[in-house]
Amino acid sequence: MTQISVERKHSLGREAARQKAEALVERLSREYDLKAEWKGDRVEVKRSGANGSVEIGEDSIRVELKLGMMLSMMGGTIKTEIERALDKALA
């Protein structure tokens, strides 16, 4: 099992960051068949072969993702895509 952890700082404030994260999670849910469940400022995401969370803080967003065996082979690509998507969403 591969563990991916990505954190990005922001200066948007918690509410604005959450709005951007909600839009990003909605798009990724459609593209990658993710199931997302919000619990306060944290969203749990799941799909076949992967599960994790996105936590929105006052000045940072942290993504934690565990990949099953089949997706582990693409771990580097998945991490790069998460970093790119976060950078774009927080710009």
TrEMBL record:
It holds the Pfam family PHA_gran_rgn. This is Putative polyhydroxyalkanoic acid system protein. InterPro entries: PHA_gran_rgn (IPR013433).
